[in-house]
Amino acid sequence: MNPRKETIALLGKHGYILARHGSNHDIFFNPATKVTIPVKRHDFDEDDMRYILKEAKIDRNQTGKRKGSK
User: Fold this and answer.
1) Selected residue with higher pLDDT from 8 and 69
2) Is the pLDDT of residue 27 over 90?
3) β-strand pairing of 35-40 with 17-21
4) Is-above-0.85 flag for pTM?
5) What is the pLDDT of residue 62?
6) Integer CA distances (angstroms), 34 to 1, 24, 50, 56, 69, in order
7) What is the DSSP string of 10-62?
């Protein structure tokens, strides 16, 4: 799974919903925490994923499999 799709899946598991589409970003909102997170639509990589998950306070290591780990 590419980093953008994985990020969107993790956001969804943690209660984030798609608020709106934009030309450069999709905006995800968590109604419980009132946090809004923009997700880039182009040139998305692992660094962007780490930054977004940090802003959303989601620990990737506890939520699912990590590539390359045993």
Assistant:
1) 8
2) yes
3) unpaired
4) no
5) 73
6) 28, 22, 20, 11, 33
7) HHHHTT-EEEEE-SSEEEEEETTTTEEEEEESSS--HHHHHHHHHHTT--HHH
